Amino acid sequence: MNLASGGAAIDGSAYRYVVDLARHSPGRLDTTIEAWSAYGLALFALLMVLAWWRARRTGAPEALTALAVPVVVVLAYLVNDVLKMLVREDRPCQTLRVRTLEACPAHGDWSFPSNHAAIAAAAAVALLFVSRRLGALACLAAVAMAASRVWVGVHYPHDVLAGVVVGAVVALGSMSSLHARSTTLAGRLATAPPLRVLLSAS
Q1: Among residues 60, 94, 104, 169, which is most buried (max CB within 10 A)?
Q2: How far apart are the C-alpha atoms of 202 and 199, rounded to whole Å?
Q3: The whole model's pTM is what?
């Protein structure tokens, strides 16, 4: 499958509206959103570490669930990247030739679905299985990440929406399966000295 420039027919007008809005917005707002778009995924990494650190004090099954979060995020990224290679949709900034806040990626750096959105959504959904509070914060951050990728001009709205769906579905399926077996798995893995350190605060 190769959408190439076909993505513009889906929501190109919405993309143009957002990019134009960004171009006429205050510089400080654009700078903040650009920084979040580029480096915001670091927040999800911090939330994963915090979730694991707190889960260790609750019990081995909870710690194991927390340790699974980054693994699930990597899995979601890989699934999303396979979809990118199958669909091969050109970036909107290449097709529509608009001026964007972020430099337009080179041809071959495909647009659909958004990796950033998939990673953020996977982290957010997976974190909900560890901590509702941290998961809720991550969900808000994931929405902000997805929106920022359109704002800086590197994705269509449907790219980030698809990325969110991919990340959420992979995380929900993976974490639900793990959650049902976490007690049994934690009991087996806790016997290994290196893993015991990761699964317990004592």
Answers
A1: 60
A2: 9
A3: 0.87
